[in-house]
UniProtKB/TrEMBL annotation:
PANTHER family: BROMODOMAIN-CONTAINING PROTEIN BET-1-RELATED, FALZ-RELATED BROMODOMAIN-CONTAINING PROTEINS. It holds the Pfam family Bromodomain. InterPro entries: Bromo_chromatin_reader (IPR050935), Bromodomain (IPR001487), Bromodomain-like_sf (IPR036427), NET_dom (IPR027353), NET_sf (IPR038336). Keywords: Bromodomain. This is Bromo domain-containing protein. One of its GO terms (cellular component) is nucleus. Residues 24-96 form the Bromo domain. SMART domains: BROMO.
Amino acid sequence: MSIIGQGLSREDISRALGLVRYLEEQPESLNFSVPVDYILLQLHDYPYIIKQPMDLSTVKKKIKTSQYANFEDMLCDLILIWDNCRTYNMVESPIVQQADAMERCMLRFCNQHGISLEAAMRKPRIEEHPDCVSFKDKEALSERLKITPPEKLEEIVHIIERECPYAILKITEERSQLRIDAIDKKVFQRINRMLDNEERDSSLPIKKIKNEA
């Protein structure tokens, strides 16, 4: 058992390193093994969205340099890796599926080795940055854009290209993909207001002008 507030015991260090090594051996671990190089990957919004980056190599280093007060804190950092991935990426993306698989591996190892995750799971999850948009709102906007008239959609895309260019992913010269998850809060709110106005205008009754005899 971990001694709360007195650092990791030798037994805890051995178990913690065993858990991290087990996770590193998983085929899905590649994207979680080292810090996200958001500059190389051109993820310009990453540091604005993810305020507490974490990865397996950092957890291992913190274990070896006695930076954890207790075992629970180490488990919280592992959970943070998967939470960060889900925060930044779309829920249906392959990398989120990999994060889910890695979390299942963590749970399996802990169950097999008598490690309780209850306290770590009860701790508050990562706080949503005030400049970010919730997943629920992103999903709602995605559904609204699917039924937006082409001319209004084109206007919205132009606004995003001008004010939030990293949300437009160029696939080919002719094709681009809109990353809802990368739209900043200010632009997001402006788009929603535009759609609200569009829906309100389209729902207004058309007044009939009676011909006077």
